[in-house]
Amino acid sequence: MRRVTLAVLGLVGTIGTAWAGPLEDGLAAYHRFDFKEALRSIAPLAEAGNPKAQGLLGKMHVNGQGVPLSSIRAVRWLRLAAQKNDADAQQELALLYFRGKGVPLNLEEAAKWFTLAADERVRLP
After folding, report:
1. pLDDT at 60
2. 98 phi and psi, to 5 degrees?
3. 56 Cβ contact partners less than 8 Å away, ≥ 6 residues apart
4. Assuming Cys at both sites, which of 13, 26, 48, 120 could form a disulfide with 41, CB separation 3.0 to 4.6 Å?
5. pLDDT 10s digits, 24-37
């Protein structure tokens, strides 16, 4: 019984790290406000086409977090992720159109992206 308990405790202790990959590492760094580490983890994933990484990179450009403040780069990354049905990116892109930040103010385009984001969130389990 003692062996089983120790084995279970050993497995539980590794669960958090066993499934962590570069995206999870990047998200964790972002939430710790370690934007340099977040960028190091997610930039290669964004370049490779990962929509979550693209969306986060876009958001970082919107806010100038670890990267230059750039609405143009933000729109580029957010649009790539939004077109792959990433709800967070769709919402961020909608906000840019709603505010006319980095793109011309366009309420119809904002409404389109807000709607797509809402629809995508309804589909999530």
Report:
1. 97
2. -65, -35
3. 26, 27, 30, 38, 42, 46
4. 26
5. 999 999 999 999 99
Task: Name residue 83's amino acid.
Answer: Q
CA separation for the pair 73, 57 (Å, rounded): 9
Tokens, residue 8? 């279970």
Pick from 44, 99, 56, 118: nearest CA to 81: 56
Looking at the domain assignment, is residue 5 inside a domain? no
Domains of the chain: total: 1
Mention every residue, 6+ apart, whose C-beta is less than 8 A from residue 31: none
pTM, two decimal places: 0.80
Contact 55, 75 (CB under 8 A): no
DSSP H/E element including 18: helix 2-18
Higher pLDDT, 26 or 7: 26
Structural domain boundaries, residue 106: 19-123
Quick check: 18 pLDDT over 80? no
Question: Distance between CA 88 and CA 117 in Å, rounded?
Answer: 7
